Each structure stands twice: as structure tokens, then as C-alpha cells.
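Sample entry (95 residues):
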Amino acid sequence: MLSLFQILMLILDIVWFFIIAHVIMSWLINFQILNLHQQFVAQIWYALNRLLDPMYRQIRRFLPPIQGIDLAPLVALVAVYALRIILMNNIQMFY
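Predicted structure, serialized as C-alpha cells:
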């Protein structure tokens, strides 16, 4: 049971990292510090979009549209953190 818990926590940590990397890259691209014409930057950007877009799409269905602000990554970060808290509290019940 402990191994399954550790694997789930690792997956949540990776998702957390991907969301943070996506947010930071979007800021750097919008402020024209990174350029999508560079192949390496474009590959990372499109890979992160492909990984995170299904999750963001589900969140955006419930969020009201706000002009120029995408709150889906923030909601996703809160959800990942909430799942971590739930898992941590429930694993303590077993040990």
C-alpha cells in the first residue's frame, strides 16, 4: 500500500512541475523572452500543451470566461495540492 501511495505522490509532483513549467513558459513567450521560432522551445511548449490541455479543457468548462486571464492552471495547481493533502491524511489512517 505504501508503494502505491508513493507512486501517486510522485505522479502528482510531476504534474505540479509540468503546470509550473507551462505557466512560466507562457509568461516568457508572452513577454517575448522566449521565441517559438526556436525549435527546442517550440517542442517543449507544444509537448506541455499536449500534456496539459485535456486537464485544462475540463477545468475551463466550469470556469467563467475572464478577459485575457486563464485561471485553469491555478485551479489545476490547487486541485493537485488538494489531492496531495487528501492522500497524506488518508495514508496516516492506515499507519
